[in-house]
Amino acid sequence: MQLATFFIILSINNTTQKLLVMKNNLIFQLTTEKVLAVAIFIIIGHTNIAKAQQITPTAKASSYFQIPDSSRQKIEEAAPASSQVKADRPKKILVFNMHRNGLEFRKGHPSVPYTNYAIQHLGSSTGAYEVWFSRDTLVFQKDFLKQFDAICFNNTAGVLFYDPQLRQNLLDYVFEGGGFIGTHAAGATFCQWPKYDFFPDYGMMLGGFESGGHPWKPHEWINLKIDDPIHPVNATFNGKNWDVSDEVFQFTDPYSRNRQRALISIDTSNTNMDMDRRILPERRADGDIAISWVKRYGKGKIFYTSLGHNSHLAWNPKVLKHYLDGFQFALGDLQAPTTPSQKVTPAMLAHEELGWKLGVEAYTFKDNTFFEVIEKTDSLGLAYVGGLNVQNVSKDIPKKLDHNLSIAEIQQIRNKLSSHGLSMLTYFVFDIPGDKKECEKIFEFGKKMGVETFISEPKIEDLDLIEEYCKRYDIKLAIHNHGPRLSPVYMYPEKIVEICKGRSPLIGAACDFGHWAKEGIDPLEAVKTLGDRVITIQMHDQSEINANGHDVPWGTGKVQLEEILQFLKEKNINPVMFGLEYSYNWGKSLPDIVESIQYFNYQTRKLANQKY
């Protein structure tokens, strides 16, 4: 049983002595004589959350898609016969419909019931997912969201809710790994003219807020170009421009191609751009009027498309296939890259083809704050970073990057990562304790930060407990190797193999080439010994394979990096991250770091058979 507050005080009119309240999204006006009764109801009223929150399965959801039979037939005939990939398990999507203008609840876009039907038909006819519908904001209770694999805001608009806890629940759900899908006016959600950022964190999560009006009326034709022809979510377009009539949004900050992967945008060379159209100056200058994109938000995957104002798009075969692919991406079934468009280079395409991610380990810039590490990583053109528990967060948050941070501080870190188009894939904490309470705090922190892998050197006797938490939180443990003083067992790759025998594949090694080389252990042979127990790699090249060695730019030292990369490709071993950890020439190492990135790019392009 949990407490559920149903009434929210919206305003008090001192002249008429009336109280405006909201109950379950319905507005009520009460005389002040009833205020005491309302207060008592709030204090003592409690109910089972599952019963309080209203969702409707497709079988009982006819009110969500009341459309003519002829339209249903057109949708069914236009829908793809099958999905690109099969779901790895049954998936559930929560489709949310609501349109608010201030305190007024509106019927919403006429296309909503058509798109609702299209969404549920795409899932049921292909087996890709099951749909549940709701118009009740109570569904954003934290425990309730857990049952869904993705949330879809289908043409929502306006400020849906103000409750700060419900807002945080939505952000947490996605950052911790839930999918999020937005169609059309989802980009105008938590906006209300003349203010376009009632919930700034939502805009950062989604990838932008609509602002500046509609340059083209819904009946006018626009020409769309395919920004990323080989992207799996764009498979239906075959790399070819196409025409569509629909209402178009213009996006402003936090929209940026350094934060998301643009899929489709308006081809301004083939679309009427007359000066009398209400096109924002910055969009007229850069011609970037995006229609669809994907992005990461922590571990969560986001698909947004502005297509969907007009009802006829619900039976457009290209749109339906684009929807289905985007939905499967958000659900985690269709694997597709999210590297922000501005960071995509031929080398980055090679990384993506190989399934490899290159990021900066925070220890490379150990004398900086984590926010400065984020900035430096972005400036290097990379999309991934590893955190460090002994590093201060920022000048404004002079605390260590660990589980003692408040949720407000954690949200600031999330926003900082998102604003630079970065994800924190790994997190170093030297010793994950065997105490259940402390262990859980660390894993909770990892979940909140969207961490995929902990790099640590826990006590061997604590591994059973840690393995339980790895399974519960779906976070990997990469056992790190220092030298004999700190890692008398873990420094030997064969010992890690022995320790991991019979354990979950979530447990393996964080291969630190530098420490191996200093102890005379050949990193190539070590990687071969570990095989599929390689979880992350902390890349180093060393001047010598002995205690006198130090970091040098990759490819210029004694570590057989080229052979290691070839082995990993041959064995189809994809580490969570290739961590660039440069531990020499502190404060002056940037040129060496750049040279190391260039080396990695060169080798990956060769392995991907790219022509120069």
CATH superfamily of the largest domain: Class I glutamine amidotransferase (GATase) domain
Low-confidence stretches: 1-53
CATH class placement of the largest domain: Alpha Beta
The CATH architecture term of the largest domain is 3-Layer(aba) Sandwich
Distance between the termini: 63 Å
Radius of gyration: 26 Å
Predict the CATH topology of the largest domain. Answer: Rossmann fold
Helix content class: 25-40%
Number of helices: 19
How would you name the oligomeric state of the polypeptide chains in this document?
single chain
Global mean pLDDT: 91
* Order of strands across the main sheet: 4-8-5-9-10-17-16-15-12-13
Strand content: 15-25%
Globular, elongated, flat, extended or rod-shaped: what is the shape? globular
Q: Topology of this structure?
A:
Elements lengths: L6 E7 L4 E6 L2 E6 L3 H10 L4 H4 L3 E2 L11 H10 L13 E5 L2 E3 L2 E3 L5 H15 L3 E5 L7 H4 L4 E5 L9 H12 L3 E5 L16 H7 L2 E2 L10 E6 L15 E4 L5 E2 L8 E6 L14 H6 L3 E8 L2 E6 L11 H15 L14 H9 L3 E4 L8 H10 L4 E5 L18 H13 L3 E6 L7 H13 L4 E4 L6 H11 L2 E5 L12 H8 L6 E6 H6 L4 H8 L3 E6 L1 E2 L8 E2 L8 H10 L7 E3 L9 H18 L5
Parallel strand pairs: 5-8, 5-9, 9-10, 10-17, 18-19, 18-27, 19-20, 20-21, 21-22, 22-23, 23-24, 24-27
Antiparallel strand pairs: 1-2, 2-3, 4-8, 6-7, 11-14, 12-13, 12-15, 15-16, 16-17, 25-26
Structural summary, described in words:
The chain is built from 19 helices and 27 strands. It is an alpha/beta fold and 612 residues long. It folds into 3 domains: 7-44, no CATH class; 54-331, 3-Layer(aba) Sandwich (Rossmann fold), CATH 3.40.50.880; 351-607, Alpha-Beta Barrel (TIM Barrel), CATH 3.20.20.150. A 10-stranded mixed sheet has the order 4-8-5-9-10-17-16-15-12-13.
